[in-house]
Amino acid sequence: MADANESARATGIPHWQADCARCSRELSDRLVADGTITWAESLAQPMWVCPLCGNKRCAKASFHGHECDRGDAEVARQQAQAEQDRAEIERRGITRRQLIDERLAAFMAE
User: Fold this and answer.
1) 50, 70, 73, 106: which could form a disulfide with 60 (CB 3.0–4.6 Å)?
2) Which is nearest to 30 in space by CA: 47, 51, 13?
3) What does the pLDDT profile of the chain (110 residues) look like in tens digits?
4) Of all residues in the chain, what percent are helix, strand and coil, respectively (each to 5)?
5) 28 within 8 A of 15, measured Cβ to Cβ
6) Is the pTM of this model over 0.85?
7) Running DSSP on this structure, what letter comes out for residue 46?
């Protein structure tokens, strides 16, 4: 299979329509070197997101050859923790501030 940069360049596809952020940067660098676009025009880059999961932090967003990792694992962990916190707040009938204060007091007591 042809490199995405080469196929985009050969077909006249603008650098911002390449497969991923890396290919777009490489293609725009080549177009600047060729004199096809100016350096300032090469700076116009869209926000790249994974075509499968839609996450901008997914490895596939930065390079199309990577596997989709469904985004950042840390973000997923934080979202799960937030969901657990919401469930505990609802179950106990307390405020978020009270939950944070309790956790801080328990941490300080250790």
Assistant:
1) 50
2) 13
3) 345 445 445 545 555 556 788 888 888 888 888 888 887 887 777 788 888 888 888 888 888 888 888 766 667 777 889 999 999 999 999 998 999 899 999 999 98
4) 60, 0, 40
5) yes
6) no
7) P
